[in-house]
Amino acid sequence: MTSRTxxxxxxxxxxxxPSIIREILKVTEQPxxxxxxxxxxxxxxxPVDAMREATARVLRDTPREAxxxxxxxxxxxxxxxxxxxxxxxxxxVDAAQVLITTGSQQxxxxxxxxxxDPGSRVAVESPxxxxxxxxxAPYEPVFTAVDCxxxxxxxxxxxxxxxARFLYLLPNFQNPSGRCxxxxxxxxxxxxxxxxxxxxxxxxxxxxxxxxxxxPPPLAARWADGTVYLGSFSKVLAPGLRLGYVVAPAPLVxxxxxxxxxxxxxxxxxxxxxxxxxxxxxxxxxxxxxxxARYKAQRDAMRAALEAxxxxxxxxxxxxxxxxxxxxLPANVDAxxxxxxxxxxxxxxxxxxxxxxxxxxxxxxxxxxxxxxxxQIERGIRALAAALKEAA
Amino acid sequence: MTSRTxxxxxxxxxxxxPSIIREILKVTEQPxxxxxxxxxxxxxxxPVDAMREATARVLRDTPREAxxxxxxxxxxxxxxxxxxxxxxxxxxVDAAQVLITTGSQQxxxxxxxxxxDPGSRVAVESPxxxxxxxxxAPYEPVFTAVDCxxxxxxxxxxxxxxxARFLYLLPNFQNPSGRCxxxxxxxxxxxxxxxxxxxxxxxxxxxxxxxxxxxPPPLAARWADGTVYLGSFSKVLAPGLRLGYVVAPAPLVxxxxxxxxxxxxxxxxxxxxxxxxxxxxxxxxxxxxxxxARYKAQRDAMRAALEAxxxxxxxxxxxxxxxxxxxxLPANVDAxxxxxxxxxxxxxxxxxxxxxxxxxxxxxxxxxxxxxxxxQIERGIRALAAALKEAA
Lengths: 392, 392
Fold this sequence. Notes:
Two copies of one chain form a homodimer. With 392 residues, chain A is α/β, with parallel strands linked by helices.
């Protein structure tokens, strides 16, 4: 801004940045590019017919309620549904602890708003979800990256997070790494966190997208008082409705609620009623398996293509759910430098560096397998491997 | 929280409070109470049939786009519609300056996030919209209340706001006072603000709800570079969709957009498409006049009832649009103490004290005339007057 502008930005505004992923997505939306960059669920899985029937019912039976202002906590029936569903996964949850949010991204924003002071520490996995870094950053924390292996945070590394306001983790099919924490690792991490008095923020957008067996129970089931749990309808229904939820220990609920009220009064009541109408009678029990089957076939296609085409020195672990492969390239390859060459070859990915709060590893990339067909995956991975070989 | 909790709240959390209005509304939702307390638009004005047709069309023609993640800026067609509509009201607006928000409450939150530092000053009218105080408070400003008369902020009082990050105003049928700034006052306020290099945040949820003549052009039409303008579909369509917009000077747009992205990624694309489908062909040109006519009749009923029943020493100005009467009681009457007596008599209102950032005037109240019938208004005001006479 010029010196004549009357506007003065807040200090925190300097911590806000354009999403690198969104910038990449713009470049890769050219026709002819096979995008393995997106984090979007497949629209083939959107339950359009069920949505059509549910919206018609809501606008027939409760139009005035659906279109009027509503409570900041969320629709009582939907909060009850979430609480009952989570109890089925082993959590002790009362509906009074559930706040409906405008996507789980808003849950991250509210957590940051209520818990993070400028200069306070926030611990994250390495790598971690970029959107969480973006949600927390405006509250000006100092990020601490906890060392991880293919099974999640290393219990012996947790002491580096001592004194942080919380440790943020995605135990199930993490974005970007695809990894799922084992039962033993969950037990060890929670025990260490409790010993350190280090609370947890557990984000679970992908937990229902398992391919062979459900993931172990959430961390919140082991330490309810010390865990804020975030969930979402984006991956099992549709993200365009922007519906998520926060489950918080009772003492945190009033402040999260006040922050929610100040942020947008409430999540659209219309959307809450439509989603509750869709899911109330067990719809997800038959719908989610169809998404799992589709994503599993695409995961298999990407595994086969990676094995067939990637040059020596690349490493990946096969994800057992979710949406992503995480690939480590030879140590001397910079994925950011590789991207334009890959795009010239007709394929796009997200360089991994964006997902690190500190000590970014330049030789990593995230590959999504959910919005592309098996045939496109095969072509895309072949083109990516060719770009890698040219760069070597 | 007990001393054993692992959670530590951010400093700003102590600036968050439960909404007094929402607490009052809970009390007054008892059957048999005539509530003049609500700020809710009348559900009789919700365009249910148009919504039904629009949702069916959106889910038939663009279901995958409507249910997928969407751009943080908002639906391009809706941004264009907003820009064109505002140009029709005399503003110079390009669609690139328009961000779609999750209700205009989110616009207030984003403005606070991007512009307010702890300890910085934010100037507001006296009284002002409580929801704005709640949106800005978590960013820890010091509030300055600018002296006002029945025509809005006094130009000669604006110097008390010098150095503030912005002056927040509602020029049209203000919540809570109902007042509408005259053309001359707008000119004088903008001239003084420009001279002081004091930027403006102009909130306009009620501008379309005029009864006899449209209000003068917005402040943003006089000082585009120095004004952030907020609008909403809540009062002309339905609040349950949570759709609003921010129009910002170009240099502020990227930071507001980044803040938006971090806050909830984007406003539900489904809702944006449905609303655009409803309004694209001039629907509001015939719909809004029906709301105006309804509210005007109810305003007339409240004016008549106030004149017929209120005891001497009470003062009000008849609003020329919007949803509220603002009543000044005799100087010795405390509206907060009066409320339980009024509720015992079967009527509820909002004590005015909540709407002051400083120097609250206890002898004031806000009366809403939009969700109650003329008959209920007559009964409610009679009951209120009786409670006042008992208290005297």
